[in-house]
Task: structure prediction
Amino acid sequence: MFPSVFISHGPPNLCLHESPARDFLAGFGQKLGKPQAIIVASAHFDMTVPSVCADETPGMFYDFEGFEEALYQMAYPAPGFPQLATIAATMMEQSGFPVQEIVGRGLDHAVAGPLRLMYPDADIPVVQMAVQTGEGMGHHIALGRALAPLRQHNILLIGSGSLTHPAEDVHSAEQDFNLSPEDSAREFAAWVLEKAEAGLIDQIADYKALAPYSLENHPKPDHFVPFAFAMGAAGEGAKGLRAHTSVMGGVTMLDSYIFE
Result:
């Protein structure tokens, strides 16, 4: 059975430049093994209701500006899996969620970026799904738990976001991976690590009230709700193992977690 994982996907050009986060993702797929298919809850795909992409052949959605021209020519030609999208939609509906299947959006950089490094052969079917940032962490924990049985069928469930994401403009083309974490980022990451390792999912759900510097690290929750999805997808009583930690620009923690 595959664990569920949370990935900090980093900037769109992470694949082009050496960094600790790039090196980690380049070896992470081999560490996890090859799943039958992958479902990714993307921080860059925000819909009012749970949504899954049911494309036979997903295209690309270049949801960024101001980066190297080469990025706009790079594809991730993984096949889609419409049947799995329908199964996932049905499982969420059976858990009480209204769900829609959509086609034609394309894989965004929260999906294609890390998978390009993790599984460069692009031969594993991928289903992209949306987050609902207006619904909070508990909603995403429940979404993950609705899909948790898929892990028994060698489906890899991923939440792709960022452990901290303090500003919309933090992902510029020039990145500095040599700065030490600022106190706000370091203390928030340490709090998450403590709660994840102890399996305290209710405290993760209430991070806005309980975590240090929660608003500074997540002015909007879009990049942290995938963490809740991934932790929920590991099922009741799951605990987290931090698989990687590094920082970009002193404020963006690029930690990734395995939950089981």
